[in-house]
Amino acid sequence: MHTPDSAAWLRLTLTPGLGNGARRALLRAFGLPEAIFAAPRSRLAAVCGDVAAASLLDAPHATVADLLERTGTWLRERPGACLISLADADYPPPLLHLADPPLLLYAQGRRMRARWMRRGQPSRSWAPASTGSIRRAIGP
Asked: CA 62 from chain center: how many Å?
């Protein structure tokens, strides 16, 4: 499903000039991406610097806007296609233990949190797989 929430997560992950460390610092400071994009430039700059703050508040670059649109199309047209953010209950717990966990996962298939865990332990019978980049998944 493509929601304003998923659009904000996409925009945050696709904004040029920000690494995952800066993105996580922004999430710690402001909460969800919607709050980041609603924050005043001065508060953003205090967390990630002036250039990154400007990048966040400017209209998305044409390349980013194109990726946002193509990802929206992928989400609407592919059965079971979804985005799973770091704040989502379906986010795979094992990934949270990585030093630099991805902020957003592009997934296709059923989303069932119960499958991640079995009796309090990670399930060995089901796990996410990465088979390519998002550019490959949504087209050229």
From this structure: 19
Going from the C-alpha of 3 to that of each of 34, 68, 75, 106, the distances in angstroms are: 12, 12, 10, 14
The answer to whether 65 and 10 are in contact (CB under 8 A) is no
Residue 43 zone, left/alpha/beta (φ > 0; ψ -120 to 50; rest): alpha
CA distance 45 to 126: 41
Q: How much is the pTM?
A: 0.73
HSE-up of residue 73 (Cα within 13 Å, Cβ side): 11
Q: What tens digit of pLDDT does each residue of 64-120 get?
A: 888 888 988 988 898 888 888 988 888 888 888 888 899 998 888 765 544 555 445
Q: How many other CB atoms are found less than 10 A from the CB of residue 128? A: 13
For β-strands 117-118 and 104-108, DSSP reports them as: unpaired
